[in-house]
Design goal:
two-stranded antiparallel ribbon, about 80 residues, mainly alpha, 2 helices, single chain
């Protein structure tokens, strides 16, 4: 939070070591769980995206004209 002059105001809500704060199951513990869950979800989404990309068939684009696909047309010499 900031005052109208822009100075920051800090509130100390809980105090202790990580282990003590986690055991107290207060705000700090909740914030740690939320952050951990967000990272886990992001990692899982990355894994799913990689699996999806690996399963997609490769697409070989070919130019198609009124005369058929490029690789099916007879070769034309430079003389016509």
């Amino acid at each position: 939070m900031r005052t109208p002059s822009g100075d920051a105001i800090y509130y100390v809500i809980e105090r202790g070591t990580h282990e003590e704060l986690m055991a107290a199951d207060g705000l700090y513990a909740n914030l740690c769980r939320v952050q951990s869950t967000a990272v886990t979800i992001e990692e899982r989404l990355d894994e799913l995206e990689e699996r999806l990309n690996a399963q997609r068939p490769t697409f070989n684009a070919q130019r198609v004209t009124s005369q058929g696909r490029e690789d099916e047309r007879p070769a034309v010499s430079a003389r016509g």
